[in-house]
Amino acid sequence: MKTDYEHRIAAVKQDFTAKMKNREHDYGQQYDNLAKRHREEMEEMINKFSERELKLNQFIEERDKQMKKLQITMKTETEDKTKLQEMTEKWSLPKETPSMKIAETKNKPSWQTKKKYTDRTRQRQLQDLRQLPEEPFDEYAERTQDLATDGFPRTPDDFIQIVATDAFLKGCLDKKAALTAMDKDPDSLDKALKYVKSDVTNQKVI
Fold first, then answer.
1. Which residues contact 130 (CB under 8 A, 6 or more apart)?
2. pLDDT by residue (tens digit) across 138-170?
3. How far apart are CA 127 and CA 85, in angstroms?
4. Beta-carbon neighbour count of residue 147 at 10 Å?
5. What would be the CATH architecture of the domain defined by 119-198?
6. CA–CA gap between residue 202 and residue 204 (Å, rounded)
7. Among 35-44, 47-56, 98-107, whose mean pLDDT is lowest?
8. How many Cα atoms sit within 13 Å of 172 on the Cβ side?
9. Contacts of 56 (CB under 8 A, 6+ apart)
10. Please, which pLDDT band fits residue 136 given cuts at 50, 70 and 90?
11. Is the separation of the CB atoms in 72 and 178 below 8 Å?
């Protein structure tokens, strides 16, 4: 009787030990699979950001080339106007010199310098932009658009949309939704916002 009881106890212990080992093995596999999938998603997101960053840099280089051409053209036109003005002054009758001159304030800060400094500040803020916890996507998108518009004034809207879209997706808290939206290659911030919100809704339904 005692021997039979001991055998049953031993069998129960052995069965329990085997089940625990199997469960540990299953947990280990699940963890490895999740970690692998997470690494793959992060690598995919990094690759896509790199591709978009490359396109953006190419766009910036092309824009800089066009700006240089425009500056050269404007410089040439300015020189021509200066020469014309010099010739006009040379062959025209002398004008009366005003008896009084308006005093000019020295070392007056230039609004253009201030504006340039503000633009660079907005660009840095846009680069480091992140969605705040519990911040609605609409408000986050609006904040992104404001920084992009203020950071790149006198810039084509297509360029602003590219910069704003990249910053918006890069700073999204929901990386899965951002990756899904990036796969659809949105060409505007509104489309990126729409894709992200749609994916978040689908995740909740599932």
1. 171, 173
2. 999 999 999 999 888 888 898 999 999 999 999
3. 46
4. 21
5. Orthogonal Bundle (1.10)
6. 5
7. 98-107
8. 27
9. 162, 163, 166
10. very high
11. no
User: Is the Cβ–Cβ distance between 149 and 119 less than 8 Å?
Assistant: no
Residue 120: the pLDDT is 82
- Amino acid occupying residue 184: K
Are the C-beta atoms of residues 167 and 148 closer than 8 Å to each other?
yes
Question: Which tokens sit at 2?
Answer: 């005692």
Q: Which two tokens stand for residue 36?
A: 């692998």
What distance in Å separates the CA atoms of residue 4 and residue 144, rounded to the nearest whole number?
A: 75
Those residues whose C-beta lies under 8 Å from the C-beta of residue 115, and which sit 6 or more positions away, are 153
The structure tokens listed for 18 are 């085997």
For the record, the structure tokens of 175 come out as: 């990386």
Q: Domain ranges in the chain?
A: 1-88, 119-198
- Which residue did the predictor score with more confidence, 53 or 97? 53
Asked whether the beta carbons of 48 and 179 are under 8 A apart, the reply is yes
What is the length of the chain?
206
